Here is the input.
Amino acid sequence: MLKESTETTRGKIARRYPKHSDIRFQPDGAAKVAFGSRKHSHKDSMTPIRFEPGASCVLLALAFALPAAAQPPSQAPPASPPSARAAARTDLTGNWVAQVTEDWRWRMITPPKGDYASVPLSAEGSKVADSWDLARDNETGEQCRAFGAGGIMRQPTRLRIAWADDNTLRVETDAGQQTRLFRFDKGRAPSATRSWQGDSAAEWLAPAPPGNPFGFGPPPDGGGFGRAPASGPPPAPQHAGVKVVTTNLRAGYLRKNGVPYSESAVVTEYYDRLSMFGNDYLQVVTVVVDPKYLTGPFVVSNQFKREPDGSKWKPTPCQTDPPVGTLQRSPYLP
Here is the structure.
């Protein structure tokens, strides 16, 4: 038994040190190992190693076990984040109708050409607005310019909101028959072509205290109604459930009478659902930034009231009525 154990030990030692130049085994179980390939003439060139028959097996077991013990414990893969639908902070789905409580003359009818009061237009933007021609838009197939993402929420429209999939919120309008897709998947590549509704990236925001759904009082940015502050980026409103940033747009209109925004415009919106007076309201704050046609952010607030069903849903194509009246400019204003 001892001889067999010694032979086994010798084989394991030889395999353990395959690159050593010399391994010598003594009858009493001792072994001398010469390290390195170079020969030495002095006596210390051989390092004596003694293996007891019983202890050698333990040492060899430890030697082979140490590399395995050094491996870090396997960790479970991280859990996938919840979908946007599962992480929803509020429910925006359902049927909604616009509540036109302000800017009636710009929203319910088509104002005359050149009426762009409260819009911070640049000189180039004013020039484009002054050259608006409704007949030309109709002839060239540009009827939907007033129904793009920069102006669609100002239309007297109904909304139908539902989940297209677990990470995409679909918003449909009956005015202009437009469909917007709010995508919570930030890794999605933008579309190859520009469109009226562009590419909309959405994210949930932290809950906030309720606000007034009718827009009474000054906007949260310190500007007037429909007007941005004089300088600086527009701050986020105090209550918003979903933030949506839309880019990759075709040039369109902020108002029906040709008040323009360019392809460079970025539309940022904040959606929140409020409950007041026994009804549900959807508040949408829209901020349009356009370095070409605007001198500052254009900020407006829009309110929608929940409807019990879609029985009043009436889709109509993009169509702008002729302007009502003519603009009378004061001789005392530039």
